[in-house]
Amino acid sequence: MTTVHLGAIDYLILGLYFAFVLGIGVALRRYTKSSSDFLLASRSLPAWVAGLAFLSANLGAQEVIGMAASGAKYGIATTHFYWIGAVPAMVFVGVFMMPFYYGSRARSVPEYLKLRFDEKTRGFNAFSFAAMTVVSSGISMYAMGLLLGVLLGWSFTASVLVSAVIVLLYIFLGGLTSAIYNEVLQFFLIVAGFIPLVYLGMQDVGGWAGLTTRLAAAATQHGYAAGAYTESWRHLGAPANNPMGVEWIGMTMGLGFVLSFGYWTTDFLVVQRAMAADSMGAARRTPLIAAFPKMLFPALVILPGMIALALTTKAGATGFSLPVKPDGSLNYDLTIPMMLGHYFPPGMLGLGLTALIASFMSGMAGNVTAFNTVWTYDIYQAYIRRGASDAHYLWMGRMATIVGILLSVATAYATTQFNNIMDMLQLVFAFVNAPLFATFLLGMFWKRTTGHGAFTGLVAGTAAAALHHGLTLPAGSAVGIKGGWLGTVMHTYPSEMAQNFRTATWAWVACFVVTILVSLVTRPRPDEELKGLVYSLTEKPVEAHLPWYKRVGTLAIVVLAATLVLNIIFF
Amino acid sequence: LDIRLPIGALFAIVGVILTGSGLLAAPESYSLHNVNLVWGVVMLAVGVVFLLLARRGV
What Rg do the C-alpha atoms of chain B give, in angstroms? Predict the structure, then answer.
């Protein structure tokens, strides 16, 4: 592909953005006086700020670049990652789970596990989560360095170090508040950079009618029904009928329930934003407020992919098409960068590039702030140095920020050399994460669940995920990192996604069943110790005095109804 | 520190830069449209709204 050349005006806009994010860090420095200020934002943020940060922390590289690539590869079925793969779980965490996270005064998700279960369950979650965040942040950095190298010709080292130093500075100065404030700024920048891109792309493709006509041709070319790229549910009857290679049970159970709820309700990276809200009501509204833009985000990140596929299938007036890899397949990952370079003049190109870099930085900052909190409270204070002064933990939080960034940079460089090892690490983390929601569901809604049950269930769920993955393989894949590594392939799935969804389902079921069985034969904690931690023993929040638009129940119904309408429109 | 202040300021400044570029360097500002001018005005307006909200302290 042709490298895009930036003009002075583009660098000016990018420089302004860097100055503003650092300025926010500097402005907030004076308020960061305790470990609670630095790591928890002193639980002082209004719901709308926490809500937009809840969404923005998830808007990393994988989201913006990856969802556009999936839009080009799978069409509108990619919206399942939003409309059943995110929004219902966001409603659930807001309505049912935030009262325990926020009301228990836990400072992190692992600490909630300690309060509800025991130390070993907290340790299992804290260590795996801390390792996962730095690896995830590093892989995101690697993707950014690679992308900016291809798009702009920037060196990998310059791209990684500039973004890492800026994120380090604004978190080091202002802590979680600075990260959250910058995530809100980054959210608005991402929207501002992508709306005109979608508008110009839609103009080029001839509006919605032109898009559907071209995508119908693309679908029939690939042997699918005409609507396979523009109808999200109609072709999920069998894996062979849709580009994703999944069927509706795998989609609803694997993605819509296990993976989605496992991420949005238990991942501290996003839950931390809601825990920083200034009241119980604000904490519960946080994910619900985030759900509104979340359900509309496919228009900004998936639609460009669909436009790119449509224009590659049948060229528009401007000659845009996706680049081709050396093996002859389309390079979907370059959808957004190619569209920015094709449609935007100098100036707008700077804004679009800033939006792209903002998405990378918000994802990185989300990982680093989650890491420094879990490290300081759940590992350092719990296992290394108890009972130190608050000033010491504030210092440790800042050190953890530096170490977290350094480990992320090291991971980014390691990925350039050992890509397969990083794939394997991500696979292991997927095994550990898949059963988590079963543990939380039982822990919050069945007071009989014990610490031994929770820990054994988590281990069993992780083992079940590894076992299922080791005995199955996606069609067309070689034995190894993709599966079948236990020596016998007992089942072949039509696609890698179908295998992932089913692996997660097996992990969840194993964890759920083993947790119940072990809990029934071990001694539960007395009710007195579980107040505020379990549904049946916790006072329900009263909302009668609030206006309708601040009531969690009302917001949840509106969110779910709007999501249902979107699913029906694009059925 | 009201977060709407930096958001408004950044949007307004970028809006002015894009609008200026759309007016002064029109041929280079066209996409298909003089995108810099149109989107610059939109960003400037959004920035001003944020600044007004921050000033009112709602």
Answer: 13
Rounded Cα distance between A9 and B13, Å, is 12
Rounded CA separation A362/A112 (Å): 25
Domain-located, residue A30 = yes
**DSSP readout, A23-41?**
HHHHHHHTT--SHHHHHHG
**In B, which residues are within 8 Å of A16 by CB distance?**
10, 13-14
Q: Are A15 and A155 in contact (CB under 8 A)?
A: no
| Residue A379 DSSP code | I
Query: How far apart are the CA of A450 and the nearest CA of chain B, in angstroms?
Result: 43
User: Using the beta-carbon criterion (under 8 Å), do B18 and A181 form an inter-chain contact?
Assistant: no
Residues in B closer than 8 angstroms to A10, CB to CB, are none
Alpha carbon distance A342, A509 (integer Å) = 47
Q: Does A102 touch chain B (CB under 8 A)?
A: no
Is residue A329 a part of any domain in this protein?
yes
Number of domains observed in the structure of chain B = 1
> What's the CATH number where A121 sits?
1.20.1730.10
Clarify whether residues A410 and A386 are in a common domain. Answer: yes
Q: Do A196 and B39 touch (CB under 8 A)?
A: yes
Contact across the interface for B32 and A12, Cβ inside 8 Å: no
Q: pLDDT (tens digit, 9 = 90+) per residue, A143-176?
A: 989 888 988 898 999 999 999 999 999 999 999 9
| A-chain residues near B11 (CB < 8 A) | 188, 192
Angle between helices B35-56 and A156-205 (to 10 degrees): 110
Tally the residues of chain A: 571
Closest CA to A439 of A540, A518, A501, A526: A518
The pLDDT of residue A49 is 96
Q: Beta partners for B34?
A: B30
Per-residue pLDDT, A302: 97
Task: Please check whether residue A60 is in contact with residue A298, taking contact to mean a CB–CB distance below 8 angstroms.
Answer: no
**Which residue in chain B is spatially nearest to A203 when comparing CA positions?**
B32
Mean pLDDT, residues A124-153: 90
**pLDDT one-digit tens code per residue, A177-210:** 999 999 999 999 999 999 999 999 998 999 999 9
Q: What are phi and psi of A125, to 5 degrees?
A: -70, -40
Tell me if A93 is assigned to some domain: yes
Instruction: Say how far apart CA A257 and CA A453 lie, in whole Å.
Output: 22
User: Cβ(A161)–Cβ(A409) under 8 Å?
Assistant: yes
Selecting from A9, A23, A343 the residue whose C-beta is nearest the C-beta of B17 gives A9
A474 DSSP 8-state letter: E
Searching chain B, which residue's CA lies closest to the CA of residue A185? B7
- DSSP of A169-197: HHHHHHHHHHHHHHHHHHHHHHHHHHHHH
The domain of B49 spans 4-56
Contact A188 B9 (CB under 8 A): no
Residue of B1, B5, B11 to mutate when probing chain A, most A C-beta within 10 A: B1
State which residues form the domain around A450. 427-540
Residues A170 and A277 in one domain: yes
d(CA A113, CA A128): 14
CA separation for the pair A215, A237 (Å, rounded): 20
Q: Which of A23, A317, A351 sits opposite B14 (nearest CB)?
A: A351
Size of interface A-B (CB pairs under 8 A): 75
As a whole number of angstroms, the distance between CA A126 and CA A371 comes to 9
SS3 category, B32: coil
Chain A segment 304-363 residues within 8 A of B by beta carbon are 317-318, 343-348, 351
